[in-house]
Each structure stands twice: as structure tokens, then as C-alpha cells.
């Protein structure tokens, strides 16, 4: 009895005491001028590079910067509660877009426009389309802090050769390939369907190619009736056709993206294609090095849609992650100094490239060409430089409650439990 | 003085002060706060805004929540039906004196030593349609344990049972050991067989243990959360989304902490009502006697 009741209460406390919980266990909040705290995601390789940049900063400054890292989902929870309380960090990692906009609207984020204006050479180092991810209502609230990660179509060259086919350039090609690979007994497209964000990539691209980026812009700007634009229904219907045609096989719902998931299905040749963020490359290199080294990992942009309004060079995914400064920071000048000194520095860029990232600064073609994975890195860099638009992942660009509902609707659509019309109705009614 | 001497042996009410304080601080206060929040629109970024009964209205129309509640009871019920006979039989069996039973039962209790997270991940990997070892089995291997909406509930029941059967077995084992041996001796003299002895002696003697174990399972099923979160994340789609998980997703992914608090209040009320009802049905005295020494 006692045990059970404690667990029940713990569950209640979990929701009820969001703020107090976040406040517990913090070693000193922001507001302390002698140090700046930087919150970021836990990622061994990247964290090393971040730590190195912090050490360089600390050497030349009387303010001590320190890094605190968190796992992905807990980080989102923690950040949101911390920004609403006194325990906010000085600098925080984020994804930009609508998510950052909420923090800006809540008055938690510092306007960095002046920083860019005072340091034009710093501003000019970044790829303009990527810098815009941190632009909210004409003001800059973030500095790109990591490599770019668009979503692209990976494929298994060996499987394509066996079937005697080429990677898809158009939507019709893709639909035809689905049939071909089914005849070959290969799952056409690997999908880590136990995680909704992998399914999201498909609708993001279909809508963009079919209707252009403006349709989703209206949705993210919260315009009246935006979900009911006919293009949305059209795109969802195309996606449904792909699902019904067996494009993803029938066992995707239990596949995860982590080890043993969609990536290994592609590498083993059980699936022919995999739509994924470019971290997939690093992932494959780590998990299935023989597959990449044999030259079997192919990559192409998402296919064009004939007659679609969207520019086929458009990208979706993570343009870049950002570092933003909080309003609650006790030493915002030091925080800004850190970003200006480090986020475009040669050491930072070199070290990011070394770990396989593609930094979003201009003029690094030569550096990328010298890396071990030069082909992929250079291709990716050109793709981003030449893209007409770069849409941030919808789940990051929408307010959290709307994003959660949308992801639920999407998994239902993939499972055949929801129709495109029902999807639109639900989203429009929210 | 006379009175103080007579009270010497019994602890005064003040002895309970630390407990009462902790209970107030960590149970009553948060519960009150959650109840308050259930009437607000609360995003952790902003101050809670009073919205009256809006959240409660929304809960009434939230079919996802009702489905999740139904699933919660379903999982609880099936878990009870699966775990009770198994735990009872193994518990009684392992209460015997033979040496091999001690060795076997110490192996059997291994899941008790594992954390829920480890257990959930273990089965998540095992049931993976592409990489799990169950996929290599004949017949069973063709089932998509985590991806088929019709099967996934039973997969959850399996993982939860695998984790908790040893605990309930332990309850039954210790209770079975307290049954006086003379009862069995007398029954044997009267010519009763083993099966008869089980139904006429063992089971009636264990009735309070059955009740305790049942209460633990049913109320526990209302709070099962970690296993499902890590095993299926409520999926595929919402096929295994139980109410506590629905609360978590609403509160911590959708950041609608006000509405999530409403669901939390419902969970607390349900848990309290359920355990009260079971105590009422089975009588307070039986509960007390079983609580002794815990």
C-alpha cells in the first residue's frame, strides 16, 4: 500500500511542481555575474568540442563559463520550466523557429540584433538562410551553434543495382520504385515508425514540393483556417497513397531509430531507401562502417514533384541549432562575448568539421574537401548553400501543444487509423 | 506524575510529527497545488491563468483520455488475471523445504533486482521485429509484438508481469510458510490428496495475501508508467497509451500542465477510490492484519 501511494503521489508531484522541481538541484542560478552557464544537449563528441571552446574563452576572460548537458527530451522539459523561473541558464541550446518564438514572446530571450550590428564581420560569416532561423519578427535571438542537418534521401546502392534501377528524381519515380522493390522482396523505404518525428519528414517534404513553403508558413504563423488549405489535404492524400502502396512495408510501427532500427535495415539491404537527417551519415559510419566504406550508402535530395509549386532545392530539417542568451542572465555581456568570440572562430569550425559536422559558415569548401568524408560533406554544404528555402522541422516550428497533437494524428494516419480529411479536421479544430 | 508514567510506554502524538510534516509537504501540499492547477491554463513559461472548469470540460470530451483510462483498467485486469495464479502457485511451491527450491527460487526472483528501465529496454530490444531474438523463433517470430495495435497491450502485460510476478510470489511464499504444518498432517490422515489440500487449506489460509496482492496490483496498474513509456511510448499510434502516460505526454511534451493536472487529479481520485473500495469490501481488519510488520 505504502509503495503504491507514494508512486501515485510522485506522479502528481511530477506535474504539479514543475517549477519547483526544476529549481531543485541547480548549482546557482543565473544572475551570478562571475560565471556564465551554458545548457546544451548531451552528445559526447560535440560536447568535447564545446568544452574546448569554453576553455579557450575562459583563458582570456575573468568570467568563468561552464557547460551543463542534458538528454534530449528531459532537456526540453527542463529548459521550459527553467526559463519560467529564476534558475535559467545564461546561454541555452535551441532549435529556433516557433519554439524559440514562444520563449521570446514570454520575454525570456535576449535580443541579439545589436550584437550582429556591432560585429558585422561576425554576422557575415554565417550562411544567411541559416541565420534567419533565429530571426523572429525582424530581430535576431540566436547564433548558429552547430552543423547543419537537412533531411535527405539515403539509399542502398547495392540494392538499387541488384534491381537495376536509379535513385528517384521525381515522385512518380518513387512510386514506381515502391512497386519494383516489393517485387524484389525488399522493403522500399525504411521507417523508424515508433517515433513520429521520422514520419513527419515525409509530410514536410511532400507539402513543400507540392505547394511551396508558404502553405506551412501560414500554419506556423497561426493564420485562421491554415490547416484547411486544400494543399495540406492534397499532400496528406499523396502520403496516404504512398503508405497504402506499401512504401514503408507493414512492420514500421515497431521500428525505432536507435540501434537495431531503421538505419541497420537500410545497411543490411532489407530496405532500399531511408529519409533521414544528415546525422544518418555519421550514424551509419559508426554502426555499419563496412556499408559506408564499400561505397554502398547513396544520397540524393528529396524527389521533385511534377507540376508542384515548391522549388526542388528547398530543404527541411535542422538548418542549424542555435545558442540564445536569456533575459535572466546575470552577465549577458560575457555571454554575448562568448558567442561572438567562439561561434565562428577557426578552431571551432575546424573541430566541428573534424567530428563530421558541416558548420554553417561561408567559405569552408576547401576545408570540407580535405576531410575523410569529403564527398558527403561537400555535397551537403552545397545543398544548403544553394537551397531556396530551409524549413525547420514542423515539430520544432509549431507551439508544443499543436506539435504534439499533429504528431499523434500523423502516427494514426500511418497506421491507417486516420484519414487525411480527419487529420485536417482535427488540426483545424484544435 | 501518574499520568506521564502510564503514558511512558506508548509513543506520544509528537512522535508522528516528522511523518506528518513530510506527508503535508510532499503529499498534501502538491496534491492541493495540482488540484488548483487543474483549474488553470498553465504553461511552465508563464504564470498559471485561472480558466475555471475549462479543463474539466475538455476532459469530458477528450476521447483519447477515456480510451487511455479504459486501457489502464484493461491492462490492470489482465495483469491481475495473469499474475495472481502464477505467483500463487510458484509461491506455494517455493515455500516448501527442499533445497533445489531455494536455488530455483533465488534464480526466479532475479527480475526483482532489475530496474524497470532495464526491463523495459530488455523487452523492447527482444521484441524488435528486425533485430530481436524473438523474431528468430518459429510461429511467435512472425508476430509484431510492439508494432501491432492488437498485440501490443499483451506485450505490455507480459513485461509488467515478468517484472512483478516475483514480487507477488515472494508475498505468497512468505505467507504460505506461516501456514501451520499440523493442518496438512491432519488432512493427510483424513485422506485428503494434494489438490484437495491446496483448495481446502492453502488457498483459504492465503486469502488475506490474495487481497493484499490484488490491491497492490490494481492500484499499481493505475500508476504503471515507466514500463510503458520505455517499452512502447504508448504506441503504435495510441494503442498502448495508458492514462498516466497520457498525462505525461500532455504535460511534458505538449506543455499543457494545467490540463495534465486535471488528469492527475482524476488518477489520484481513482486510486484512492479503488483502494478504499477494496478495503471496504474486504474489511479493515483483514487489511490491518496483513499490514503488520510491513
Automatic annotation (TrEMBL), chain A:
Gene3D superfamilies, sorted: Periplasmic binding protein-like II
Keywords for the protein's UniProt record, in alphabetical order: Signal
Keyword Signal: yes
Domain of life of the organism encoding this protein: Bacteria
Signal sequence segment: 1-25
Signal listed as a keyword: yes
Identification of the protein by name: Raffinose/stachyose/melibiose transport system substrate-binding protein/xylobiose transport system substrate-binding protein
Organism from which the protein derives: Nocardioides thalensis
From TrEMBL, chain B:
Matching SUPFAM superfamilies: MetI-like (SSF161098)
Subcellular location: Cell membrane
Signal peptide: none
Residue stretches spanning the membrane: 12-39, 68-90, 102-123, 151-171, 206-225, 257-279
Alphabetical GO biological process terms: transmembrane transport
Primary location class: membrane
Lipid bilayer topology: Multi-pass membrane protein
GO CC terms, sorted: plasma membrane
Domain of life, per lineage: Bacteria
Keyword Oxidoreductase carried by entry: no
Gene3D superfamilies: MetI-like (1.10.3720.10)
Keywords per UniProt: Cell membrane, Membrane, Sugar transport, Transmembrane, Transmembrane helix, Transport
Domain called ABC transmembrane type-1: residue spans: 69-278
UniProt entry tagged with the keyword Cell membrane: yes
Family assignment from sequence similarity: Belongs to the binding-protein-dependent transport system permease family.
Protein name according to UniProt: ABC-type sugar transport system permease subunit
Organism per entry: Nocardioides thalensis
